[in-house]
Input
Amino acid sequence: MLIIVDSREKKNAHILRYFDDHGIKYVIRKMDVADYQTEGRDKLVIDRKQNLDELATNLTNPKDKGRFWREVRRAHASGIKMIVLCEHGKGVKSIPDVVGWNSKYSPVNGQILQEKIYQCHISYGVEFLFCRKSETAAKIIELLEAVRNE
Output
């Protein structure tokens, strides 16, 4: 398996280190949608978010949300399944857990963010998964291998 890593993906040294340590082959290049996919399997992509603050910005901030929503629509129109993998941790393991979230950086609260997540999921089929930062790389491999084995 060869993983494509988007060249614009930021702060992913922990993921690339895991790939290197586990002999996972990857190439870094610009992707049109999301941050990770398997070479030759373009019907599933993974878009990583560092935390709920980044996700809230992508879904609600007028300056940022246009880019994210364009990617979501592009994936949907192309028949690509998008998974957003959020590295929040701190007790957030599923979408219902988001409702209890509050940010010191964003005016968006957990209820509003949860509504935006559901809107994106229902309208475009985007799947939202949550993990701790230490689990991200293994989760990316698990998700990409599941598609490879179908």
In short: Strands lie at 2-6, 25-29, 36-38, 41-49, 81-86, 127-130. Residues 41-148 form a domain with the Rossmann fold fold (CATH 3.40.50.10130).
